[in-house]
Amino acid sequence: MTDFFNExxxxxxxxxxxxxxxxxxxxxxxxxxxxxxxxxxxxxELQQSGYTTLTIPKEFGGQEISLYELVRFQEVIxxxxxxxxxxxGWHMGVVRNMYEANWQKETLKEVxxxxxxxxxxxxxxxxxxxxxxxxxxxxQTTAEKNGENWVINGHKSxxxxxxxxxxxxxxxxxxxxxxxxxxxxxxxxxxxxIENTWDSIALRGTGSNDVYFEAVEIPAxxxxxxxxxxxxxxxxxxxxxxxxxxxxxxAQTEAVTFAKNxxxxxxxxxxxxxxxxxxxxxxxELKMQTAKHFLYSVSKKWDESSVEQQSxxxxxxxxxxxxxxxxxxxxxxxxxxxxxxxxxSAKSPLQRYYRDVRAGLHNPPMDDMTIExxxxxxxxxxxxxx
Length: 386
What we know:
Layout: H1 4-7, H2 11-35, H3 40-49, H4 67-80, H5 82-100, H6 105-116, E1 121-124, E2 142-146, E3 149-159, E4 167-174, E5 180-186, E6 192-195, E7 209-218, E8 223-227, H7 239-261, H8 275-304, H9 307-310, H10 314-339, H11 349-358, H12 367-385
Parallel strand pairs: 1-4, 2-4
Antiparallel strand pairs: 2-3, 3-7, 4-5, 5-8, 6-7
């Protein structure tokens, strides 16, 4: 298994290969979840297959896959293991977003060359004192000039994939100014300390630990981006709802398989013949179709829109995350009602899906912020129509 995704361009064959990898991930998921460890083997398989390079722009030697392709691929990975999907999804999004953020070309070339060889990157933005960066809190992590270099000091929490990252993209306040920037920090810099603090009951395999940056010195060109107060539209965050949709799909499969095979001696046939169970199976399917159509159609809309049109799609992108994530939670709940008390057994993957899918409520953007965005959109459109 070497560089499959760069050699094979056919969408269906790529999905088939990911399904094969996803089955491997499922086999390991129980142990990773119970131990609260990290899926090192899963990451290695994704790296070796070339999957981690797919969002690199063609200009820099990548495949530059579409947003639609990404969400479809991430959904398949999540059917095997939600932790693996969410983790690699952050990498895939950052890889593409750094190009769209207009980093200096030489810096992009330097980093993409390493990413083409399997390096992994993720942002480090959340802090214990400020909470989610989407709420607008100013980072307490600081960046200070030292000659031509920058010195970074700070403490980041929820740094997903921290055990295997080659690059941290750190958000920091620039000392002596009101500005905030993104700073690229390679893992081999002196002064980086990772504490194994990830104790969540959901997505236990993401390695979302606390990371400390203590007088970490980096060259000037690793100050890669000055952040604007007005958030840019980032469509690659749709990897988040894709992950939870995949988890819901796994729960649906588990429940339907159970219903088709479970035959208590109180009935003839299996419970899949009972009207109330069939109603729940149909309800799950309806919800899954609704979520898929919303996620897929908005992804395609982004891919097919002009730059000007894309700039107005933030409310729709946010709405996708809210709707799909909440539907995913509902689907897992229905699946557990079908299976009954057995779904709460430690041997059942459903109890893992139940815990994992709820993590989506705490990934950005938050539901209340999305509702506000939609309210603003609706009110503005009403004003414009008068």
